[in-house]
Amino acid sequence: MSTTQELANIKLIKEESREDMDKTIKEMQKEVDEYIGQFKEGYFSPLAMMARLTEELGELAREINHYYGEKPKKATEEERTIAEELGDLQFVIVCLANSLNIDLQASHEQVMEKFNTRDKDRWTRKEEE
């Protein structure tokens, strides 16, 4: 799939799920928790989820390598998109956070504070017009 096709797929996904795109991190965590709560097994152990996270990250790396790297897909390989792989990765991250009672919104705020203080002068800022 070409980069143009990849962008078209991302645009289609965005158009199809416009309402879902406005969810807060808390809403996403709640939605995943409600989904997992339907099953007796519940969340996997943190170690199992770490393995799953690694697996999903590998799948994302593979897709990026196919589209932007030197390794084209084999004709027999299933069509996947970078957006789909990022979604899989995000789902597992939310599952891991939920299982450990971590508020990802609070984690995000903490990380942004760190970048806005510690790393505020690390990169060259764009000129104001």
TrEMBL record:
Residues 14-70 form a coiled coil. SUPFAM superfamilies: all-alpha NTP pyrophosphatases. One of its GO terms (molecular function) is hydrolase activity. It comes from the Bacteria. Keywords: Coiled coil, Hydrolase. Signal peptide: none annotated. Residues 44-123 form the NTP pyrophosphohydrolase MazG-like domain. This is Nucleotide pyrophosphohydrolase. It comes from Pseudobacillus wudalianchiensis.
